[in-house]
Here is the input.
Amino acid sequence: MLDQITNSLVAFNREIAVVILAALPVSELRGAIPLAIAMDFSPLKAYVLAFIGNIIPIVPLLFLLQPVTNKLRHIKIFEKFFDWLFERTKRKATLVEKFEALGLILFVAIPLPVTGAWTGCVAATLFKIRFRYALISIVLGVVIAGLIVLGLSLAGKEILT
Here is the structure.
């Protein structure tokens, strides 16, 4: 399904495709940077577009996650989803629980599945990290993750060519 979305977006506009892919919770910049590099974007352009896309959802998530969750928990299917999401995040986010804002930076910076900005926002909400610290930590984590993913993407492209 992600391939279909990506192909449709790329056919529409390559730059917008990178930004939107980076804003999505599954791919984030971990998927957007390799796509941009594969489309022969310059490393700077790939990084900037993916970074912009990845930070777009941060503020709305930090502001709205708790109120929306509280409202939707009254519906059984959403209650089960949020219980699953929060329990999974608690298991994965021991760094955040232990080191708070610094742990949040490290958690988001690790370029692995389920450790990006979206999950960072969930962790910040769960562990009640103040908005400004959460925002700064998640953005710094995205900066670091982007640099790591960019380096790996460029290395992978070099090996393949």
Observations:
- The chain has two domains: 2-55+149-160, 58-144.
- The mean pLDDT is 92.
- The chain has nine helices and no strands.
